[in-house]
Amino acid sequence: MEQHKRLPVVAIVGRPNVGKSTLFNRLVGSRKAIVGDRPGVTVDRLESQCRLGERQCILVDTGGIGETQHGEMQAAIDDQVAAALDVADLVLFAVDAPLGVTPVDYNIADSLRRSGRDVMLVVNKAEQEALAHEFHALGMGQPWPVSAMHGAGVQAFKQALAQRLPEYETGDDEAEQQPLACISVIGRPNVGKSTLINAWLGRDRMVVSPVAGTTRDAIDSDIPWQGGIIRLIDTAGQRKHGRIADVIEFVARVKAVQAFRRSDVAVMVLDGAEGIVEQDMRLMQLAQESGCALLVVVNKTDLISEAEWHHYVERLDFRMRGLPDVPVRRISAKHRKGIRGVLKAAVAAAERNRFTASTGELNRWLEQVQRKQHAPSDDGAAVRLKYMLQTASAPPTFKVFCNRPKAVRQSYVRFLEHDFRRCFDLPGIPLRFNFTSSDNPYANMDPQRKESSQSRAAHKRSAKRRSKRQAREGKRR
Questions:
Q1: 3-class secondary structure for the chain?
Q2: What is the mean pLDDT of the chain?
Q3: Is-same-fold flag (3-174; 359-437)?
Q4: In angstroms, rounded to a whole number, what is the distance separating the alpha carbons of residues 335 and 355?
Q5: Which of 193, 224, 396, 420 has the most CB within a 10 Å radius?
Q6: Chain centroid to CA 43: how far?
């Protein structure tokens, strides 16, 4: 069998609503693709690494083809499927067992035969295996009856699929290349997220349409950068929570949050020709809460004047006053103005999000910041931050030991975060300060011993104060 220097690519194609995304999820082993009970849920390609016993492949879910229910978007969907087929080593042609063979299935089968691709015919929703016999009429070889939803026949199909895969030549040089940065592109519908990614890639990787909400899944694309790669994650357009009447759009929002959690930085795309709304701010907060560095990009600025731009920036600064000094850039993704600088700034933000510092550096800063402003007292009792250490990065996370952790006010935490970002040059980076008390040496001690130990400690403190007082009096004499 031919050996490939890369993982083989397997594309799932077929009519709308035959269960392609359900099959994709079943083979991958997780709910990565959005599944709905109506046609047309999958629009873009969705790719994931898939393990089949000893073999691995890149599995690609595609939109439904052969019908015209999407209107003007169908041509774009067909282009995306064609792009998936161009790189596919094996095609899984999915059909619907209860519906039987349809004229559209015949057309797709004919097209696949002309393409010369290796094809496996998957008869989905075949809880009764006898339903698969009818599909011999397509002339695509042995039909494989499965139920992607219930798992029937899937294990046998996976074994057959693994045997059909081209062998993958492994070696030390084939280790998966870790990206220099994982960048999520976020924003409300139709602000130009996919246009921006396509401009970075130099090709039409994403479906672009004036119809809001064209992108529904989070899609990954890799591009070379300074000897490594950058991973770009396009996310579904977000709408205000109360307007998500369609369950598919709700799940898309959840998947966007999942994208944040595997990203180093989120590029928030705003529309310069529109105002700033509460949903924009909520998205930024979600990204920060998920640990992403944040970079704000104002798109379509070619449509506004300089005076309008300055007014836009003033409003943006006011709305973002609760966020951590987020950098703001202006671009025109359509005309590819400013996009290279944004990508460079996003990579730099991802690097800042992986910030680490020595314990010595952290504690010198902690001492200096308390000289600038002490923590507010707790009903007259002093709140002292004793020392700190770093426990994680991306986002930078710190444990701060103090005498009264519950008394540290949120306003003082914001002051600490602002000063830390300024001191270590970390604009747009979320910080996590976890306050904890020092270990109490008397916590688990026997009550009598505890009382005795506390008495001895009090006696020592009293003796120490007495000796200091006597020394001061001796100096006066």
A1: CCEECCCCEEEEEECCCCCHHHHHHHHHCCCCCCCCCCCCCCCCCEEEEEEECCEEEEEEECCCCCCCCCHHHHHHHHHHHHHHHHHCCEEEEEEECCCCCCHHHHHHHHHHHHHCCCEEEEEECCCCHHHHHHHHHHCCCCEEECCCCCCCCHHHHHHHHHHHCCEECCCHHHCCCCCCEEEEEECCCCCCHHHHHHHHHCCCCCCCCCCCCCCCCCEEEEEEECCEEEEEEECCCCCCHHHCCCHHHHHHHHHHHHHHHCCCEEEEEEECCCCCCHHHHHHHHHHHHCCCEEEEEEECHHHCCHHHHHHHHHHHHHHCCCCCCCCEEECECCCCECHHHHHHHHHHHHHHHCCCCCHHHHHHHHHHHHHHCCCCCECCECCCEEEEEEEECCCCEEEEEECCHHHCCHHHHHHHHHHHHHHHCCCCCCCEEEEEECCCCCCCCCHHHHHHHHHHHHHHHHHHHHHHHHHHHHHHC
A2: 80
A3: no
A4: 34
A5: 193
A6: 19
The CATH classification of domain 359-437, taken from the options 3.30.450.40, 3.30.300.20, 3.40.50.720, 3.90.1200.10 = 3.30.300.20
Task: Give the separation between CA 131 and CA 127, rounded to whole angstroms.
Answer: 8
CB of 447 closer than 8 Å to CB of 430: no
Tokens encoding 207: 């479906």
Q: 328 - beta bridge partners?
A: 296
Whether 99 has a pLDDT exceeding 50, the answer reads: yes
pTM of the model: 0.59
Q: Which of 281, 267, 82, 53 is nearest to 167 (CA)?
A: 53
8 Å CB contact between 61 and 33: yes
At 307, give phi and psi (nearest 5°): -65, -40
How far apart CA 188 and CA 332 sit, in angstroms, is 17
Q: What does each C-alpha distance from 213 to 64, 180, 190, 203, 217 come to in angstroms?
A: 17, 29, 7, 20, 10
Tokens 């898309």 belong to residue: 252
7-64 tens-digit pLDDT = 788 888 888 889 888 899 889 887 655 455 545 545 445 667 788 888 888 888 877 7
Matching CATH number, 3-174, of 1.10.443.10, 3.30.1370.20, 3.40.50.300, 2.60.200.20: 3.40.50.300
Which whole number is the average pLDDT over 408-417?
Answer: 94
- Confidence at 349, pLDDT banded by 50, 70, 90: very high
Residue reference for tokens 């004919």:
110
Tell me the fold of 181-353.
Rossmann fold (3.40.50)
